[in-house]
Amino acid sequence: MALTAVKGFNDILPEESGRWQHIEQTARRVFELNGFGEIRVPVLEKTELFSRSIGDGTDIVEKEMYTFTDKGENNVTLRPEGTAGVMRAFIEHKLYALDPVSKLYYMGPMFRYERPQKGRYRQFHQIGAEITGVNDPLADAQLLNMLTAFFREIGLDEPTLQINSLGCPECRPAYRSTLRSFLEARIDQLCDDCKRRFVSNPLRTLDCKAQGCIEATAGAPSVLDHLCSGCDSHFSSVRRYLDLSGTPYSINARMVRGLDYYTRTTFEMVTGLLGSQSAVAAGGRYDGLISQLGGPSIPGIGFAMGLERIALLLGAKEFSSQPDLFIATMGAGERDVAFCLMDGLLKSGVRVEMDYEGKSLKSQMRRADKLNARYSVVIGENEVASGRAAFKRMADGLQIDAALTVDAIAPLVRKTV
Ligand code: ATP
Ligand code: MG
Predict the structure, then answer these.
(1) What share of the chain is helix, strand, coil (3-state, %, to 5)?
(2) How far is ligand 1, taken at its centre, from the CA of residue 279, in Å?
(3) pLDDT at 39 over 80
(4) Residue 143's Cα: distance from chain center in Å?
């Protein structure tokens, strides 16, 4: 039997990877413009890193992690998200000692044992960014502006930004017990997961998709009415900076995050186009995380976005690059000339394709069409003798006569915009 990939693990084929590269390159450009540097961390970490940071009562740690014991009896896990590993590295290499403010970004595969469906896989890919060392709401606003700029630059007007504040260890416990009292009277309406969360993490009931939970929590007290004065003024400032920069957003007081380490500002980029997989990017402040992992008390804020979902939103848009020129030959005698021309053009950065196998002229032209070449040229005995040929612009059939030299051809066929 033929071997196939593991369920929930996908191949990204060349026809799709153009779209992925467009996403990755745009992220690099926008993030580096904002002063972020790339950090690359391992995909495998000690399990304890994730249980200590993401939290034992979360879906990720409770049921989604790829955890195993390796041959040396070490308990290890394929990373389910990026922030924990980045912060582990941040502490381990004392990056805070080099600069009180650090701005880092990462991209790569993440692993969660989830039920595979459209927009949800077991190996998926995230691009994320983190700012550490800044309490000021300016950092929140810059990060949100950068995220907004990223989506604008890749050419999507969906998704839209939603923000919320989850308070801090000072005010959240009181809100949690207020919410718990509210839910107590409605506990029979909650789904089984939320009955359990009622004890461990009652805030999660607010974003549960089950109908009973949506109804039960309809009039629930809002976290925004229970912020301490520090959290309240932080959130007002974030909104003010967003207003000052003209960044569109809405407030979603029911947004909670599935990871325990979040404090204060939380946010999502949400789309209506992907069914229940509505969040394409998500993040927030994690002011307690670094110290929780054994580092100094340094605040942080960051986000991660899912490449698969962004690629789905980009849909059928064409991003694979087309050849500048396809060289066809009349016969075997011209293949040396064609090959040397192709070689010279490739060396000067022109994307060229030619027929490798001496096919008929008709089938060569079919291939030029299939590859969507911008120009084609046919080289026969006459062209070799005169050293000139007609270059055909495939879009409209315009023929342009030019010498068969790299210097003459390159500026003609190379895309200038
Ligand atoms: P969801 O509510 O959709 O499960 P999440 O809260 O688990 O999302 P995060 O941990 O915040 O997601 O991850 C950030 C982003 O990573 C998500 O917005 C999404 O785009 C993407 N993502 C998360 N899990 C998956 C997955 N299993 N497959 C594909 N993309 C994913
Ligand atoms: Mg999830």
Answers:
(1) 40, 20, 35
(2) 7
(3) yes
(4) 15
Query: For the chain, what is the domain count?
Result: 2
Atom of ligand 1 nearest to the CA of 81: 10
Residues of the domain holding 402: 325-414
Cα angle 279, 285, 289; round to 5 = 115
Instruction: Please report, for the domain that includes residue 149, its CATH number.
Output: 3.30.930.10
Q: Of 191-195, 380-384, 413-417, which range is least confident?
A: 413-417
* Euclidean distance between CA atoms 292 and 192, whole angstroms: 30
Q: With a cut of 70, say whether residue 149 has pLDDT above it.
A: yes
Q: Tell me how far the alpha carbon of residue 60 lies from the centroid of ligand 2, in angstroms.
A: 7
Instruction: Calculate mean pLDDT across residues 135-139.
Output: 97
Closest CA to 255 of 241, 245, 265: 265
Tell me: do 166 and 100 sit in the same domain.
Answer: yes
**Statement to judge: residues 292 and 329 lie in one domain:** no
Which of 226, 139, 150 has the alpha carbon at shortest distance from 181?
226
